Each structure stands twice: as structure tokens, then as C-alpha cells.
Structure to design on (247 residues):
């Protein structure tokens, strides 16, 4: 396969999962997911493929970068970091401390919705909500516990509360301890998102976009009052945007 036609391999190492995607001509050809510690399985899955280059994002702990360099000495391996991001202006006090997975999601939103006012909600171990004016200016955001962290904290830091999940949701108000816990977590997150989105709307005016990404966002998306878009590959699109800028 000619070098310019080879696909890109993108790897997102999170705290709960390692996700990988193969992109060629801006089209996702393959996606895989692995648990932390399954780096060897990831390398095995992609060992028979040839790539133009590889980009890795690491918000969780891993030694995968070194393994990737040994995986194919002829394939460039890049690690996404703050210094590679050129298309965002910051209001953040110390922008270099922002989680690189958050930044990748914003870059993906830039790709999908060029020069729009965008509120990006990313659900993972934590939930982050960030506001981008004109797709370029990061005005700020919030970080709060994610879905599983909320459920686990109520169970682990109390003597009698059981471990609930989003599957126990009965309605906005529960009719059992499990459903009360589930409704409290899920609709608490809904309220956070709606509050931040309305604050952003008041700040920039007009009709900004609300974009959600990450695991489990569908449970939130259909419960939100504002119209919203679910973009599951936002982080990969951001990584691809940076990788293409390097070649």
C-alpha cells in the first residue's frame, strides 16, 4: 500500500478503558476497546496492519507508548500533548494542566462544528463541561464526578446505602432506595448540564450547540431539555485533526 494511502491508528488510554480506532481518508474503519492491562491484546489486534502513523492520548496510566515504538520502528508514534494544540485560545489560568482528553474533545468539536459556540460535555470517570466561543476560545468549564463515581461514593461512604446504577431509574423521583439513588445521580447530572448550558447561552447569546460524548451519554441526552448532539468519536476526531497537522 502506498505510504500516503495508509491508515492512521489512534489510541485513547483512559482510566477505565483503552480505546483504539483506525481512520483512513477521514473515515473510521475499525474501533476496538480494551481494559487497562490489555495492552498486549491491543498490539496483537493491530499487528498485521500497516499504518502511516500512530497517535496516542494517555489520561490513564500505561507503558503503551514504549511498546508501540517497539511494535514497528518504521511507523512514527506521536503522543498528544498540550504543546501540539494550536487552534484554541485559553481563558484557563494554567491551560497546560487541562486533561488532554478534554482538549481532544474540543478539537473534535472544532472539526464537526467549525466556528460555532459549543458546549462540550464529556462523560468518563469524571464529567467535564466546557464552553467554546466561536469554536476557538475556551471560556472555562467544570469538572465533577462521573456516573459510576457518584454511585460508588454513596455506596462506599455510607453504612447502608446499596450500590445502584442507571438501570434502576424509575422516574425523576424514585419509589425505592435503589431508584432514588439512580434518579438522584442521573437527574443531578442532567441539572448540572442544563445549568452550565444556560449560563453559556446567557454569555454568548444566540443558540449555542450542546454536544455530548463519552460512555453512557445516551442515558443523559434524551433527558435533557435543550436540543443536543451525541458525538461518540469526538476525541478520536480531535486526535486525527492534530495528527494530520503533523504530516
Amino acid at each position: 500500500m502506498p505510504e500516503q494511502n495508509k491508515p492512521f491508528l489512534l489510541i485513547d488510554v483512559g482510566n477505565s478503558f483503552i480505546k483504539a480506532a483506525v481512520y483512513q481518508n477521514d473515515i473510521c474503519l475499525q474501533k476496538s476497546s480494551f481494559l487497562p492491562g490489555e495492552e498486549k491484546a491491543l498490539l496483537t489486534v493491530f499487528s498485521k496492519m500497516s499504518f502511516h502513523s500512530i497517535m496516542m492520548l494517555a489520561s490513564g496510566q500505561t507503558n503503551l507508548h514504549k511498546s508501540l515504538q517497539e511494535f514497528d520502528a518504521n511507523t512514527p508514534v506521536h503522543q498528544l500533548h498540550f504543546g501540539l494544540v494550536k487552534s484554541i485560545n485559553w481563558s484557563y489560568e494554567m491551560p497546560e494542566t487541562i486533561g488532554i482528553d478534554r482538549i481532544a474533545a474540543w478539537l473534535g468539536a472544532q472539526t464537526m462544528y467549525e466556528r460555532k459556540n459549543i458546549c462540550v460535555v464529556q462523560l468518563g470517570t469524571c464529567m467535564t463541561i466546557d464552553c467554546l466561543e466561536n469554536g476557538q476560545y475556551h471560556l472555562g468549564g467544570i469538572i465533577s464526578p462521573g456516573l459510576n463515581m457518584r454511585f460508588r461514593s454513596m455506596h462506599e461512604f455510607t453504612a447502608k446505602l446499596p450500590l445502584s446504577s442507571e438501570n434502576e431509574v424509575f422516574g425523576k423521583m424514585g419509589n425505592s432506595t435503589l431508584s432514588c439513588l439512580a434518579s438522584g445521580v442521573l437527574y443531578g447530572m442532567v441539572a448540572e448540564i442544563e445549568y452550565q448550558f444556560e449560563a453559556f447561552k446567557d454569555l454568548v447569546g444566540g443558540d449555542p450547540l450542546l454536544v455530548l460524548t463519552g460512555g453512557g451519554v445516551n442515558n443523559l441526552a434524551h433527558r435533557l431539555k435543550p436540543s443536543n448532539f451525541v458525538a461518540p468519536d469526538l476525541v478520536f476526531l480531535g486526535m486525527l485533526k492534530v495528527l494530520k497537522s503533523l504530516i
